């Protein structure tokens, strides 16, 4: 998706294919009804460009150098290294919505899931949040709905640092509630404006882009923080079944195909381990 006027998003090829599939199914249902004057399905003849899911690529030092020289972005899906992610979070700490970006960077919920997360589904004592709702953007308007699949309704386990960050944010929000007084809007959401009202997803994206630019980082989309969270979990050795479940994917195959960006240092370690196995060397031989 690309952002255009007032943050409204222009549908990419993959989204257009999903729209076509939905429209085609709806028209097939209409054709089967004798009370509707529809006998053919025009969506069946709609031609769209082929859709190929872009593979994530990591912003290596060489790619960053090339981007700074030419402005070239190697892939539609780019992922920051762990060091670059830390640089972004260091900048985001000076913004009141740091906890929101921290949660996405560490645990990978979708933008709408994070924006639509209510405190009632947040169990900090148990180090968990339950993803049951999301706020999605329709044009410039928004609607609160459930995740798009059964797998999307899930529980995400939080690390101790993320729990600490969310506790601090809750104390901050309570202070904002007292300051707002009768003007406070009780949305029940974790992440809100200072008056308690819901955040607009597009405004969160624009803030993310601003913070990334101020941190002088190569460009990624807000959604790519999700890619990065998954990639770093897999690189850290977390079982792919766990990563897939927490991302809300129905299959581990989709997770691996889409989100497993191998960071250069991990790839080099794997290459050395393979070479050592073949040559009969052990880690002690290199000591």
Automatic annotation (TrEMBL):
Which family does the entry's similarity section mention? Answer: Belongs to the 'phage' integrase family.
Q: Where is the signal peptide?
A: none
Tyr recombinase domain boundaries: 75-272
Family annotation (InterPro entries)? DNA_brk_join_enz, Integrase-like_cat_sf, Integrase_catalytic, Tyrosine_recombinase_XerCD
Q: List the protein's name.
A: Site-specific integrase
Name the source organism: Streptomonospora wellingtoniae
Q: Extract the Pfam families matched here.
A: Phage_integrase (PF00589)
Supply the alphabetized keyword list.
DNA recombination, DNA-binding
């Amino acid at each position: 998706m690309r952002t255009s006027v007032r943050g409204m998003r222009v549908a990419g090829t993959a989204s257009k294919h999903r729209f076509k599939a939905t429209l085609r199914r709806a028209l097939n249902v209409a054709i089967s009804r004798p009370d509707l004057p529809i006998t053919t399905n025009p969506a069946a003849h709609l031609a769209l460009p082929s859709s190929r899911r872009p593979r994530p690529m990591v912003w290596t030092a060489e790619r960053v150098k090339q981007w700074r020289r030419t402005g070239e972005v190697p892939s539609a899906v780019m992922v920051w290294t762990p060091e670059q992610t830390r640089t972004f979070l260091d900048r985001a700490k000076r913004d009141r919505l740091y906890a929101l970006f921290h949660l996405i960077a560490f645990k990978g919920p979708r933008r709408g899931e994070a924006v639509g997360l209510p405190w009632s589904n947040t169990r900090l004592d148990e180090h968990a949040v339950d993803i049951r709702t999301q706020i999605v953007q329709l044009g410039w308007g928004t609607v609160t709905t459930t995740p798009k699949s059964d797998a999307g309704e899930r529980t995400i386990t939080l690390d101790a640092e993320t729990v600490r960050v969310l506790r601090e944010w809750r104390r901050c929000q309570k202070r904002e509630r007292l300051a707002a007084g009768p003007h406070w809007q009780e949305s029940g959401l974790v992440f809100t404006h200072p008056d308690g009202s819901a955040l607009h997803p597009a405004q969160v994206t624009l803030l993310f882009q601003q913070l990334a630019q101020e941190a002088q980082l190569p460009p990624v989309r807000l959604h790519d923080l999700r890619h990065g969270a998954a990639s770093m979990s897999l690189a850290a050795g977390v079982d792919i079944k766990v990563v897939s479940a927490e991302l809300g994917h129905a299959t581990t195959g989709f997770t691996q195909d889409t989100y497993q960006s191998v960071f250069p240092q991990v790839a080099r370690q794997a290459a050395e381990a393979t070479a050592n196995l073949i040559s009969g060397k052990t880690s002690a031989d290199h000591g």
